[in-house]
Amino acid sequence: MPLLTIENLPGPPVPVPTGTTLLAALHRAGHDWPHACGARGRCTTCRVQVLAGAENLTPPTASELRYQALGRLLPTERLTCQARLPAGEVLARVPEAAKLPHVAYLG
Ligand code: FES
Questions:
Q1: Residue 107 lies inside a defined structural domain of this protein
Q2: What is the CATH number of the domain that holds 17?
Q3: How far is Cα of residue 53 from the mean position of the Cα atoms in its chain?
Q4: Is any ligand 1 atom within 6 A of the Cβ of residue 43?
Q5: From residue 81, how far is each of 12, 20, 43 by CA, in Å?
Q6: Which of 45, 52, 62, 89 has the fewest CB atoms within 10 Å, counting from its CB?
C-alpha cells in the first residue's frame, strides 16, 4: 500500500488506501491534523510540505492551483484534503504555519 511519512510526527509511516486523501489517511492513523473547512479545499489549514515523492501524488486540484496563484500555498506544499497517493511513497513534514499548539512535533 502507498505510504506517507511525516518526518516531524511520531509514529510509523501512514498507509494511504487507494482513493483516499492524505488527510483521511492521517486521521485514520490517529493523527490530529487541522481541517478547518471540513476538507472542502476552502482553507489551507491542512497543508503539508512535500520533501520527496511529489511526483507520486495526484495532480494539484483547482483549489490548490487557486491558492498557489494567490501565493497562499507554496509550490512545495499540498492540501492533504485534496491530494491522493495512488502508488509509491511520499516524505513530508508539517510546516510551521500548520502546527497545532497541543501536538508534540519532532521538529
Ligand atoms: S481542510 Fe480546508 S483546504 Fe483542506
A1: no
A2: 3.10.20.30
A3: 12
A4: yes
A5: 20, 9, 10
A6: 62
Amino acid at the residue 72: R
Residue ranges, the chain, pLDDT below 70: none
The reply to whether 21 falls in a domain is yes
What pLDDT is recorded for position 97? 86
**CA 67 / ligand 1 centre spacing (Å):** 11
pLDDT of residue 5: 98
Average pLDDT, the chain: 96
Q: What is the pTM of this model?
A: 0.96
Residue 4 carries which side chain, given as an amino acid letter? L
How many angstroms does the Cα of residue 70 sit away from the middle of ligand 1?
Answer: 15
- Grid coordinates given for 86: 495512488
Question: What pLDDT is recorded for position 88?
Answer: 97
Which residue, judged by its Cα, is nearest atom 3 of ligand 1?
A: 41
Question: Do 24 and 85 form a contact (C-beta atoms < 8 A)?
Answer: no
Is 77 contained in some domain? yes
